[in-house]
Design brief:
By secondary structure, the chain is α/β, with parallel strands linked by helices. It folds into 2 domains: 209 residues, TIM Barrel (Alpha-Beta Barrel); 32 residues. The protein is 45% helix and 14% strand. The protein has 10 helices and 9 strands. The strands form 2 sheets. It has a 6-stranded parallel β-sheet. A 3-stranded parallel β-sheet has the order 6-7-8, covered by helices on one side. Strand 4, helix 7 and strand 5 form a beta-alpha-beta unit. Helix 2 packs across helix 4. The longest helix is centred in the C-terminal third of the chain and has 17 residues. The radius of gyration is 18 Å and the shape is globular.
Length: 251
Protein backbone atom coordinates (compact mmCIF):
# COMPACT_ATOMS: atom_id res chain seq x y z
CA UNK A 1 0.00 0.00 0.00
CA UNK A 2 1.75 3.16 -1.22
CA UNK A 3 1.75 6.22 1.02
CA UNK A 4 -0.04 9.20 -0.51
CA UNK A 5 1.74 12.52 -1.03
CA UNK A 6 0.48 16.09 -1.27
CA UNK A 7 0.93 15.86 -5.05
CA UNK A 8 -1.38 12.84 -5.06
CA UNK A 9 -4.18 15.00 -3.66
CA UNK A 10 -3.92 17.28 -6.69
CA UNK A 11 -3.89 14.24 -8.97
CA UNK A 12 -7.04 12.91 -7.31
CA UNK A 13 -8.70 16.26 -7.99
CA UNK A 14 -7.37 16.29 -11.55
CA UNK A 15 -9.00 12.91 -12.22
CA UNK A 16 -12.34 14.30 -11.09
CA UNK A 17 -12.38 12.09 -7.99
CA UNK A 18 -13.27 13.26 -4.49
CA UNK A 19 -10.77 13.70 -1.66
CA UNK A 20 -11.96 12.17 1.61
CA UNK A 21 -10.62 13.38 4.96
CA UNK A 22 -11.72 11.64 8.15
CA UNK A 23 -11.40 13.12 11.64
CA UNK A 24 -9.68 10.63 13.94
CA UNK A 25 -8.39 10.83 17.49
CA UNK A 26 -6.48 7.63 18.25
CA UNK A 27 -4.67 4.64 16.78
CA UNK A 28 -7.56 2.24 16.21
CA UNK A 29 -9.85 4.86 14.69
CA UNK A 30 -7.02 5.85 12.39
CA UNK A 31 -6.21 2.26 11.38
CA UNK A 32 -9.85 1.61 10.51
CA UNK A 33 -10.15 4.83 8.47
CA UNK A 34 -6.85 4.14 6.70
CA UNK A 35 -7.90 0.59 5.78
CA UNK A 36 -11.29 1.87 4.62
CA UNK A 37 -9.61 4.14 2.06
CA UNK A 38 -9.44 7.62 3.58
CA UNK A 39 -7.06 9.98 1.77
CA UNK A 40 -6.37 12.18 4.79
CA UNK A 41 -6.53 11.40 8.50
CA UNK A 42 -7.04 14.65 10.36
CA UNK A 43 -6.46 14.78 14.11
CA UNK A 44 -9.03 17.36 15.17
CA UNK A 45 -8.45 19.71 18.08
CA UNK A 46 -12.03 18.76 18.93
CA UNK A 47 -10.37 15.85 20.76
CA UNK A 48 -10.03 18.23 23.70
CA UNK A 49 -13.79 18.30 24.04
CA UNK A 50 -14.70 14.85 22.69
CA UNK A 51 -11.87 12.78 24.18
CA UNK A 52 -10.43 14.78 27.10
CA UNK A 53 -13.72 16.25 28.30
CA UNK A 54 -12.58 19.87 28.08
CA UNK A 55 -15.48 22.34 28.15
CA UNK A 56 -14.43 24.28 25.04
CA UNK A 57 -12.59 23.28 21.86
CA UNK A 58 -10.35 26.33 22.31
CA UNK A 59 -8.96 24.87 25.55
CA UNK A 60 -6.99 22.24 23.64
CA UNK A 61 -3.21 22.75 23.60
CA UNK A 62 -0.32 21.46 21.50
CA UNK A 63 0.75 19.27 24.43
CA UNK A 64 -2.75 17.76 24.46
CA UNK A 65 -2.49 17.01 20.73
CA UNK A 66 0.92 15.36 20.69
CA UNK A 67 0.12 11.81 21.98
CA UNK A 68 -2.79 11.58 19.55
CA UNK A 69 -0.69 12.93 16.68
CA UNK A 70 1.94 10.27 17.34
CA UNK A 71 -0.64 7.49 17.50
CA UNK A 72 -2.35 8.46 14.25
CA UNK A 73 0.97 8.81 12.41
CA UNK A 74 1.84 5.26 13.51
CA UNK A 75 -1.54 4.01 12.29
CA UNK A 76 -1.36 5.42 8.78
CA UNK A 77 -0.01 3.28 5.97
CA UNK A 78 -1.66 5.05 3.02
CA UNK A 79 -3.37 8.26 4.11
CA UNK A 80 -1.73 11.60 4.70
CA UNK A 81 -1.87 12.78 8.33
CA UNK A 82 -2.95 16.31 9.21
CA UNK A 83 -2.83 17.66 12.77
CA UNK A 84 -5.09 20.56 13.70
CA UNK A 85 -3.28 23.64 14.96
CA UNK A 86 -4.99 24.44 18.28
CA UNK A 87 -6.15 27.97 18.99
CA UNK A 88 -3.66 28.32 21.85
CA UNK A 89 -0.58 28.82 19.63
CA UNK A 90 -2.63 30.91 17.19
CA UNK A 91 -3.47 33.32 20.00
CA UNK A 92 0.27 33.58 20.73
CA UNK A 93 1.25 34.51 17.15
CA UNK A 94 3.16 33.16 14.16
CA UNK A 95 6.29 32.25 16.14
CA UNK A 96 4.28 29.93 18.42
CA UNK A 97 2.51 28.45 15.39
CA UNK A 98 5.88 27.73 13.74
CA UNK A 99 7.13 25.98 16.88
CA UNK A 100 4.00 23.84 17.04
CA UNK A 101 4.39 22.99 13.35
CA UNK A 102 7.95 21.82 14.01
CA UNK A 103 6.68 19.50 16.74
CA UNK A 104 4.05 18.06 14.41
CA UNK A 105 6.65 17.60 11.67
CA UNK A 106 9.05 15.89 14.07
CA UNK A 107 6.51 13.15 14.88
CA UNK A 108 5.87 12.49 11.19
CA UNK A 109 2.76 14.52 10.36
CA UNK A 110 2.33 15.49 6.72
CA UNK A 111 0.45 18.74 7.26
CA UNK A 112 -1.34 20.93 9.76
CA UNK A 113 -4.74 22.59 9.48
CA UNK A 114 -4.92 26.23 10.60
CA UNK A 115 -8.26 27.92 11.19
CA UNK A 116 -8.05 31.47 9.85
CA UNK A 117 -11.78 31.88 9.12
CA UNK A 118 -12.98 35.51 9.17
CA UNK A 119 -9.50 36.62 10.33
CA UNK A 120 -7.56 35.94 7.14
CA UNK A 121 -5.96 39.38 7.01
CA UNK A 122 -4.84 39.09 10.62
CA UNK A 123 -3.69 35.46 10.62
CA UNK A 124 -2.31 34.83 7.12
CA UNK A 125 1.26 35.08 8.44
CA UNK A 126 0.59 31.81 10.28
CA UNK A 127 0.16 30.05 6.93
CA UNK A 128 3.54 31.33 5.79
CA UNK A 129 5.12 30.40 9.13
CA UNK A 130 4.14 26.75 8.68
CA UNK A 131 5.36 26.67 5.08
CA UNK A 132 8.71 28.11 6.19
CA UNK A 133 9.08 25.28 8.72
CA UNK A 134 8.75 22.78 5.86
CA UNK A 135 5.40 21.30 6.88
CA UNK A 136 2.50 21.32 4.44
CA UNK A 137 -0.36 23.57 5.45
CA UNK A 138 -4.13 23.04 5.17
CA UNK A 139 -5.86 26.37 6.01
CA UNK A 140 -9.51 26.68 6.95
CA UNK A 141 -11.37 29.65 5.52
CA UNK A 142 -15.02 30.65 5.23
CA UNK A 143 -17.51 31.16 8.04
CA UNK A 144 -18.22 29.69 11.51
CA UNK A 145 -20.06 26.42 11.97
CA UNK A 146 -20.79 27.04 15.65
CA UNK A 147 -21.92 29.97 17.77
CA UNK A 148 -24.06 33.00 17.06
CA UNK A 149 -22.33 33.76 13.73
CA UNK A 150 -22.85 30.32 12.20
CA UNK A 151 -24.79 29.86 8.99
CA UNK A 152 -24.40 29.48 5.24
CA UNK A 153 -23.18 32.64 3.50
CA UNK A 154 -23.76 33.63 -0.11
CA UNK A 155 -23.58 36.57 -2.49
CA UNK A 156 -20.87 38.30 -4.54
CA UNK A 157 -19.08 39.72 -1.49
CA UNK A 158 -18.75 36.30 0.13
CA UNK A 159 -17.65 34.74 -3.16
CA UNK A 160 -15.01 37.43 -3.72
CA UNK A 161 -13.73 37.13 -0.15
CA UNK A 162 -13.21 33.37 -0.11
CA UNK A 163 -11.84 33.28 -3.65
CA UNK A 164 -9.31 36.00 -2.87
CA UNK A 165 -7.99 34.13 0.15
CA UNK A 166 -8.15 30.73 -1.51
CA UNK A 167 -5.91 31.99 -4.31
CA UNK A 168 -3.49 33.60 -1.84
CA UNK A 169 -3.37 30.39 0.16
CA UNK A 170 -2.66 28.37 -2.98
CA UNK A 171 0.09 30.79 -4.00
CA UNK A 172 1.63 30.41 -0.52
CA UNK A 173 2.08 26.69 -1.18
CA UNK A 174 -0.85 25.14 0.70
CA UNK A 175 -1.66 21.47 0.14
CA UNK A 176 -5.42 21.84 0.39
CA UNK A 177 -8.15 24.18 1.69
CA UNK A 178 -10.97 23.55 4.17
CA UNK A 179 -13.80 25.93 3.25
CA UNK A 180 -16.88 26.13 5.45
CA UNK A 181 -20.44 27.46 5.35
CA UNK A 182 -20.77 28.75 1.79
CA UNK A 183 -23.30 27.84 -0.87
CA UNK A 184 -22.85 25.01 -3.38
CA UNK A 185 -22.29 27.56 -6.15
CA UNK A 186 -19.39 29.14 -4.25
CA UNK A 187 -17.90 25.74 -3.42
CA UNK A 188 -18.01 24.92 -7.11
CA UNK A 189 -16.58 28.23 -8.33
CA UNK A 190 -13.69 28.26 -5.89
CA UNK A 191 -12.91 24.59 -6.53
CA UNK A 192 -12.83 25.22 -10.28
CA UNK A 193 -10.50 28.19 -9.88
CA UNK A 194 -7.85 26.29 -7.88
CA UNK A 195 -5.47 23.45 -8.71
CA UNK A 196 -5.38 22.30 -5.05
CA UNK A 197 -8.40 20.51 -3.53
CA UNK A 198 -11.12 22.49 -1.77
CA UNK A 199 -12.98 20.38 0.77
CA UNK A 200 -14.88 20.96 4.02
CA UNK A 201 -17.08 19.50 6.69
CA UNK A 202 -20.09 21.28 5.16
CA UNK A 203 -18.90 20.84 1.56
CA UNK A 204 -21.43 19.94 -1.12
CA UNK A 205 -20.69 17.74 -4.16
CA UNK A 206 -19.59 20.85 -6.06
CA UNK A 207 -16.41 20.86 -3.94
CA UNK A 208 -13.41 18.57 -4.43
CA UNK A 209 -14.23 16.41 -1.43
CA UNK A 210 -15.49 16.38 2.14
CA UNK A 211 -14.31 16.03 5.73
CA UNK A 212 -16.27 13.48 7.73
CA UNK A 213 -15.92 11.69 11.04
CA UNK A 214 -17.03 8.83 13.23
CA UNK A 215 -19.36 10.82 15.54
CA UNK A 216 -18.31 8.99 18.73
CA UNK A 217 -20.16 11.18 21.23
CA UNK A 218 -22.83 10.07 23.68
CA UNK A 219 -24.82 13.09 22.52
CA UNK A 220 -25.13 11.47 19.09
CA UNK A 221 -27.12 8.49 20.40
CA UNK A 222 -30.54 8.50 18.76
CA UNK A 223 -29.68 11.26 16.28
CA UNK A 224 -29.76 11.15 12.49
CA UNK A 225 -26.38 12.35 11.26
CA UNK A 226 -25.71 13.55 7.73
CA UNK A 227 -22.55 12.17 6.19
CA UNK A 228 -21.01 10.74 9.39
CA UNK A 229 -20.89 7.23 10.81
CA UNK A 230 -22.78 7.26 14.12
CA UNK A 231 -20.26 5.23 16.09
CA UNK A 232 -21.73 6.50 19.36
CA UNK A 233 -25.01 4.75 18.49
CA UNK A 234 -23.21 1.55 17.48
CA UNK A 235 -21.10 1.45 20.65
CA UNK A 236 -24.16 2.17 22.81
CA UNK A 237 -26.17 -0.65 21.26
CA UNK A 238 -23.21 -3.03 21.54
CA UNK A 239 -22.77 -2.06 25.20
CA UNK A 240 -26.46 -2.60 25.95
CA UNK A 241 -26.24 -6.07 24.38
CA UNK A 242 -23.02 -7.00 26.24
CA UNK A 243 -24.39 -5.78 29.59
CA UNK A 244 -27.65 -7.63 29.00
CA UNK A 245 -25.81 -10.88 28.23
CA UNK A 246 -23.79 -10.68 31.45
CA UNK A 247 -26.87 -9.79 33.52
CA UNK A 248 -28.56 -12.86 32.06
CA UNK A 249 -25.57 -15.09 32.71
CA UNK A 250 -24.79 -15.55 29.03
CA UNK A 251 -21.00 -15.35 29.18
Amino acid sequence: MAKLTVSDLQEIKGRGEKVVAIIVYHYQMARIADLAGADVLTVGDSLGRNILGQPDVEDCTVDDMMPFAQAVVKASERALVSIDMPMTPSRAGAKAVAEAARRFKDVGADMTKIDIRTKEEELFDEVEAVVNVGLSVFPQIGYPTQGAERGIRTGPEVRDHVLKWALRIQDAGAAMIDMTNVTPEIYGEVSSALRIPVIGGQATPEADGRITGFAPRAEDIGRELRGRANVGQFVYESAVEAIGNIKAGNY
